[in-house]
Specification:
single chain, alpha+beta, five-stranded mixed β-barrel, 32% strand
Amino acid sequence: MMRKFANLLIVGLAILMLMGPAQSASKGRSVTITGELIDSWCYVTEIMYALGTAHHQRAIWCAVGGIPVSVRDDQDNLYVVLKIEADDTSVANQRLITIQGHKVTVKGDLYRRDGVNYIFVTQVADDQGIINLTHKIYGVQPGG
């Protein structure tokens, strides 16, 4: 039994060595991104329809609970918001909660690591409010 475990451990380490080290974070570069602020958890896991007014209240609850908020652009790229403007908290901050589900244009510093986009938002340059009126199709989620 111990020999099998040792063999598995050796194989696992060999695979990790072949994969190489994790990518390091890129240097931040200034960007302007336009898209909808979304609840990352529901969007990525596809637990429920996670866009627009159909998901607005649920997205607020998730943001308050600390689920990361992301900007989803028109090409379905996600940018995880790590910080917004002068706020020193990264999740569940009031600014993100009040604009959850809105279509916004943000300016900030983009970082990429291991295939994930992260943004430190320095300015919400435009807030068009909620323009994705999906509740007409999907109803309000969660129901009740």
